[in-house]
Design a protein that fits this description.
Blueprint: H1 2-19, H2 32-40, E1 48-54, E2 62-64, E3 69-70, H3 77-88, E4 95-105, E5 108-116, H4 125-137, E6 142-143, E7 147-150, E8 186-193, E9 198-204, E10 210-214, E11 216-219, E12 230-235, E13 244-253, E14 259-263, H5 268-282, E15 286-287, E16 291-293, E17 301-307, H6 311-320, H7 324-339, H8 345-358, E18 380-381, H9 382-393, H10 398-403, E19 427-434, E20 437-445, E21 451-459, H11 467-479
Parallel strand pairs: 5-6, 5-7, 6-15, 7-16, 10-13, 11-13
Antiparallel strand pairs: 1-2, 1-21, 3-18, 4-5, 4-17, 8-9, 8-14, 9-11, 12-13, 19-20, 20-21
Helix pairs in contact: 1-11, 2-11, 3-6, 3-7, 4-5, 7-8
């Protein structure tokens, strides 16, 4: 019922934009449709912050609570994005290197294969397979030593994956790693087999260190909370080299068709080891040893470099779909590249602050924990975020920065919002949400061709109910901002 009520409220607000003049707001007053939507959501205006300024204007059109430090959720990714584009350059690429530590006779390496990670945020299983295929093409088949992982580009991240919300198996909680492979996630897919009356279970990527057991019986009924009708047990050995075991049981509704469940199991080394061994054997290779951490030794023979897509492409993936793991990898890369030291979050925060100061942006309240917004302590004011957006519009990387944000009603996290509304396709908006937090920041091109930087933060237990208010603000800006 509440969902339908919100839809009706949104429709009413849209009609108000179309049929009546938009009431002008003072610089410290909320637009009428926004204020009305906040009242309907039972969220006090004092728990919100807004900032709107036309690009090129001398002062904001609207600044409400704009100087109050607030949790920005995933809009913090915009700070990380602009810093990375300017400090690293839009064509920056991460490198993952392979070395032979030992002697090779024919296709046999008597020694170790060393993989040195460079923090690639998008080392997918497909790209990893291409890397291993290239190693086989270079004559390597039998590895008679260990798989050695050089992860020294980042300092080890001393954080429990469940620290944020006690959900350690959720892929968004994966901690960064210099050799992050495929976001360290398995995708379990359930495929109904009507003839056998069961749902077949497949997994990608396959791993030599992952065992799947159990049976899911097909059942009648609607596909609502389908996970509630099945039982899943996920167990990963704590020691390096352990096998992760999963078991599924219970019922799976036929009406669901194919569904997938992404789960982050195992340590980074075990995940990479299992996928490596699986792919390497499928390519006709063999690995006689195990896996261990270590640095590339002196005298090791270089074999191959796998390069990531360019940073400009990476940040589009990150911001369009609000990928926290990618954001944390990029954030750490800033300190690794700028300081030439093993990356750590505190050092990256300092690099960003010094870069901001060099741009003439003094943001004293800025608090960055991991650069992704998946944090309870990160803070920035709406005014500071707005000033960052204004500065970004004058940056040489402006086009890459704006293109990284979801286009309203068309893609990313804004794909399903404001469809068939006048503002559709006229705004690039980064969204953010946590329990008790709902935010947006970006640019709106209004009906008269003027571009505005727009920021709307809500920090309140009912924040999730304020989407109508935020959509109302975007519509209000598009309609002419009361001018």
């Amino acid at each position: 019922m509440r969902f339908h009520r919100l839809l009706l409220d949104a429709a009413a607000l849209t009609a108000a934009f179309a049929l009546s003049p938009v009431g002008a707001a003072g610089a410290d007053a909320l637009p009428a449709p926004v204020a009305a939507a906040l009242r309907a959501a039972a969220v006090p205006a004092a728990d919100t912050a807004l900032f709107i300024q036309e690009v090129g204007a001398a002062r904001p059109l609207l600044a409400y609570n704009a100087g109050t430090p607030m949790n920005p959720a995933s809009t913090m990714k915009l700070v990380t994005t602009l810093a990375a584009l300017e400090l690293l350059g839009p064509t920056f690429r991460w490198k993952t290197e392979a070395y032979a530590a030992g002697t090779q006779q024919g296709d046999a390496l008597t020694g170790d294969l060393v993989l040195r990670g460079g923090g690639d945020p998008k080392l997918t299983v497909e790209n990893f397979w291409l890397m291993l295929r290239a190693l086989r093409a270079r004559g390597l088949r039998d590895i008679r030593g260990d798989l050695v992982l050089d992860r020294t580009y980042f300092e080890p991240v001393a954080q429990d994956a469940g620290q944020f919300d006690s959900e350690p198996l959720r892929p968004y909680n994966v901690v960064p790693d210099a050799l992050l492979l495929n976001y360290k996630a398995y995708r379990f897919t359930f495929v109904p087999d009507a003839q056998r009356g069961v749902a077949r279970i497949t997994v990608e990527p396959r791993s030599a260190l992952l065992a799947i057991a159990g049976t899911l019986r097909l059942a009648a009924g609607r596909c609502n909370d389908w996970r509630a009708t099945l039982k899943a047990e996920f167990n990963a050995d704590g020691g390096m080299g352990g096998v992760a075991r999963t078991r599924f049981s219970g019922l799976y509704p036929r009406s669901c068709g194919e569904k997938s469940w992404n789960v982050a199991l195992q340590s980074h080394p075990d995940y990479l080891h299992g996928v490596f061994r699986q792919l390497w054997e499928e390519l006709g290779g063999s690995l006689q040893g195990g896996v261990r951490d270590g640095a590339v030794p002196p005298g090791a023979r270089f074999l191959y470099t796998a390069e990531s897509p360019a940073l400009a492409e990476i940040v589009r993936d990150m911001n369009k779909f609000s990928n926290n793991v990618m954001a944390r990898q990029i954030f750490l890369t800033l300190s690794a590249e700028v300081t030439n030291q093993p990356a750590r979050a505190e050092l990256s925060a300092r690099v960003v602050r010094e870069w901001l100061a060099g741009q003439g942006l003094d943001l004293p309240e800025l608090k960055m924990e991991n650069g992704s917004g998946l944090s309870r302590i990160e803070r920035i004011s709406a005014s500071s975020m707005g000033r960052l957006l204004i500065a970004a519009y004058a940056s040489p990387v402006m086009s890459e920065f704006i293109a990284s944000m979801p286009l309203v009603a068309y893609d990313g996290t804004m794909k399903r919002r404001l469809k068939h509304q006048p503002v559709a396709g006229r705004a690039h908006i980064k969204t953010g949400s946590l329990a008790g937090v709902l935010t947006l920041a970006g640019y709106v091109l209004d009906s008269r061709g003027r571009r505005f930087a727009v920021v709307f933060f809500v920090n309140h237990p009912n924040a999730g109910a304020t989407r109508v208010a935020q959509d109302a603000l975007l519509g209000w800006v598009y309609a002419g901002s009361g001018r």
